[in-house]
C-alpha cells in the first residue's frame, strides 16, 4: 500500500509540478505586480531604480521589492531604460541585475556576460565555438552601459578602438540564469513507474519511427527519455529490420559481443546471457567505464519450449523509494564504489577505470539529480577497497536495495513476442528474464548515451512543443547561437 501510494505521489509530482515549473520558467511575459505599476505612474524611475538596487545587494535573493521612494545611494551606477513590460536592468561594479518581475531577479557578473558574448567576433556563428579570448578580459571589466531593449539586454563594453556591443535575448538570459538558477535542471520530465505500468506501457509503431520526417522518431525518443523504456510494435521479425530500427537513433556501439548481435542459448560468449538461466534485474556493462546508454532487443523466435519472460524494473523509481524510506541506505549506495569485471572470455578482461569502480547511484554534480543506476551483483568483483567499518552497513544496504528491486510492486514482467522490440535506458531501467527451455533467438544492439541525447536534442529543435527549444523555420538550416543546448 505504501509503495503504490508513493508511486502515485511521484507520478503526480512529475507530471504536474515539474511541467508547470518548466512552463513558468519559459514564459515570456514579464508583467509587473499592480502595486509597482501604481507606483510607477507616480515616479517610474525611482521605483525601478530602488528595486534594481535592491537586487544587487548580496544574497539572500530579495523576496519583496523595495518600495522606498528614496533615490539609490550615490555610489551606485544605475543605467537603465524604462519601458513598460520590459525586464529592468541595472548594474553595480561587479554585476548586471535583470528584474523579470518584482520578485524575480537574475544577476550576471560582468566577466560572465563578456565571456558569453555571442556576436560573430566573439563566437563562431557556424561552428558554435568561442572566439573571444577569455583570458584577455580584464578581471575588473565594467560595462559603459546596459540597456533593456525589446528583445533583450544590450551591453556596451569599453574597448581600445570602438566600444564593443553585446546583445543577449531575454529568453536566453532567463534560461541561463545562474544567480539564482531559474530553470528546472531537467527539461524533460521523468515519469517513474512500478509494476502497474503494465496497464499502458509506452509503445510506438515501427512505421511511424521509420518515416523520414521524424515526428514518430521524436515520440519514440521522448518515451525513452520519460519512461526509460519503450516498445516498438510491428517490427518485421528479422535481424535486418531490427538493425535498421536501432540505427534510427545513432550508430551502434560495438562491444566484445559484436556490433549488432544475435544470440541463442549456446554459450557462444562467456556470459550467462547466452544460457537458459533466469537472470535477476541488472544493468549491463557495470564493468565498463561508460556502460552502454541504450539497449534494444527483439525476440525473433522461440520454438519448442516456454518461459523466458522479460523483467523490467525502473531503477529511478526504486531509488526514490529507498531515498524516502531508507536515506542511510541511499547514501551508502551513492558513495561506495563497486568494482566489476567481464572475464568469461580468454581474449578479454574488462574492468572499469578506475578499477575500484563506481557507486550504484551516480548523481549530477551540478544539480544533485540521480543520473545513473549501475547494478549487476553477478558481475561484482572482490570488494577489496571497502572500509572495514562499512562492511556490515554496506551488506545491509545492498540487501535493502535488492529487496526493493525484487518487490512485486517494482517488477514489470512481460512476455515478448516476435514483432515487438523493446529499447531500454541502461542507465536507469534494469532488465532480467525468467528461465526458459527450447530455442530462443534474440537480436539487438547497444547505442551510446551521447548518441541518444544528441538525436533527442536535434529532434527537439524541430518538434518540441516548447517554442524556446525549437529552431525557427527560417533558421532551420543553421542552428541558432542562442540554442538552449549550447
Ligand atoms: Zn562580442
From TrEMBL:
Catalytic activity: N(6),N(6),N(6)-trimethyl-L-lysine + 2-oxoglutarate + O2 = (3S)-3-hydroxy-N(6),N(6),N(6)-trimethyl-L-lysine + succinate + CO2
Segments for region (Disordered): 53-76
Protein transport among keywords: no
Gene3D superfamilies membership: 3.30.2020.30, Clavaminate synthase-like (3.60.130.10)
Source taxon at top rank: Eukaryota
Gamma-butyrobetaine hydroxylase-like N-terminal domain residues: 91-173
Residues covered by the TauD/TfdA-like domain: 200-446
Classification via Pfam families: GBBH-like_N, TauD
Named cofactor requirement(s): Fe(2+); L-ascorbate
Assigned EC number: 1.14.11.8
UniProt keyword terms in alphabetical order: Carnitine biosynthesis, Dioxygenase, Iron, Metal-binding, Oxidoreductase
Biochemical pathway: Amine and polyamine biosynthesis; carnitine biosynthesis
Family membership noted in the UniProt record: Belongs to the gamma-BBH/TMLD family.
Cited function: Converts trimethyllysine (TML) into hydroxytrimethyllysine (HTML).
Protein name: trimethyllysine dioxygenase
Amino acid at each position: 500500500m505504501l509503495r503504490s501510494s508513493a508511486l502515485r505521489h511521484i507520478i503526480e509530482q512529475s507530471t504536474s509540478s515539474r511541467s508547470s515549473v518548466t512552463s513558468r520558467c519559459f514564459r515570456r511575459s514579464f508583467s509587473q505586480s499592480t502595486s509597482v505599476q501604481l507606483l510607477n505612474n507616480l515616479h517610474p524611475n525611482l521605483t525601478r531604480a530602488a528595486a534594481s538596487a535592491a537586487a544587487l545587494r548580496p544574497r539572500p535573493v530579495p523576496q519583496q521589492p523595495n518600495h522606498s521612494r528614496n533615490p539609490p545611494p550615490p555610489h551606485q551606477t544605475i543605467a537603465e531604460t524604462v519601458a513598460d513590460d520590459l525586464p529592468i536592468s541595472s548594474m553595480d561594479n561587479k554585476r548586471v541585475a535583470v528584474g523579470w518581475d518584482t520578485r524575480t531577479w537574475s544577476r550576471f557578473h560582468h566577466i560572465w556576460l563578456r565571456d558569453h558574448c555571442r556576436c560573430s567576433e566573439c563566437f563562431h556563428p557556424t561552428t558554435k565555438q568561442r572566439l573571444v579570448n577569455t583570458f584577455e578580459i580584464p578581471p575588473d571589466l565594467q560595462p559603459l552601459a546596459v540597456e533593456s531593449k525589446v528583445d533583450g539586454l544590450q551591453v556596451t563594453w569599453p574597448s581600445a578602438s570602438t566600444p564593443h556591443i553585446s546583445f543577449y535575448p531575454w529568453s536566453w538570459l532567463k534560461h541561463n540564469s545562474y544567480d539564482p538558477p531559474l530553470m528546472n535542471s531537467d527539461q524533460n520530465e521523468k515519469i517513474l513507474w512500478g509494476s502497474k505500468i503494465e496497464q499502458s506501457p509506452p509503445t510506438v509503431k515501427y512505421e511511424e519511427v521509420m518515416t523520414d520526417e521524424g515526428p514518430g522518431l521524436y515520440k519514440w525518443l521522448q518515451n525513452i527519455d520519460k519512461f526509460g523504456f519503450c516498445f516498438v510494435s510491428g517490427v518485421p521479425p528479422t535481424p535486418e529490420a531490427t538493425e535498421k530500427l536501432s540505427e534510427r537513433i545513432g550508430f551502434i556501439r560495438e562491444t566484445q559481443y559484436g556490433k549488432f548481435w544475435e544470440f541463442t542459448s549456446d554459450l557462444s560468449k562467456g556470459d550467462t546471457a547466452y544460457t537458459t538461466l533466469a537472470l535477476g534485474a541488472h544493468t549491463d556493462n557495470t564493468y565498463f567505464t561508460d556502460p552502454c546508454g541504450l539497449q534494444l532487443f527483439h525476440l525473433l523466435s522461440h520454438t519448442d519450449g516456454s518461459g523466458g519472460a522479460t523483467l523490467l524494473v525502473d531503477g529511478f523509481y526504486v531509488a526514490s523509494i529507498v531515498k524516502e524510506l531508507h536515506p542511510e541506505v541511499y547514501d551508502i549506495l551513492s558513495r561506495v564504489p563497486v568494482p566489476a569485471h567481464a572475464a568469461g572470455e580468454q581474449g578479454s578482461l574488462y574492468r572499469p577505470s578506475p578499477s575500484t569502480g563506481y557507486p550504484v547511484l551516480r548523481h549530477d554534480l551540478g544539480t544533485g539529480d540521480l543520473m545513473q543506476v549501475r547494478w549487476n551483483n553477478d558481475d561484482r568483483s572482490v570488494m577489496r577497497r571497502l572500509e572495514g567499518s562499512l562492511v556490515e552497513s554496506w551488506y545491509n544496504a545492498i540487501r535493502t536495495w535488492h529487496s526493493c528491486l525484487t518487490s512485486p510492486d517494482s517488477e514489470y514482467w512481460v512476455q515478448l513476442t516476435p514483432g515487438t522490440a523493446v529499447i531500454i535506458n541502461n542507465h536507469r531501467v534494469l532488465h532480467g528474464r525468467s528461465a526458459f527451455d527450447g530455442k530462443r533467438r534474440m537480436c539487438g544492439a547497444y547505442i551510446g548515451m551521447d548518441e541518444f541525447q544528441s538525436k533527442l536534442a536535434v529532434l527537439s529543435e524541430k518538434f518540441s512543443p516548447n517554442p524556446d527549444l525549437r529552431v525557427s523555420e527560417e533558421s532551420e538550416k543553421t542552428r541558432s547561437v542562442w540554442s538552449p543546448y549550447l
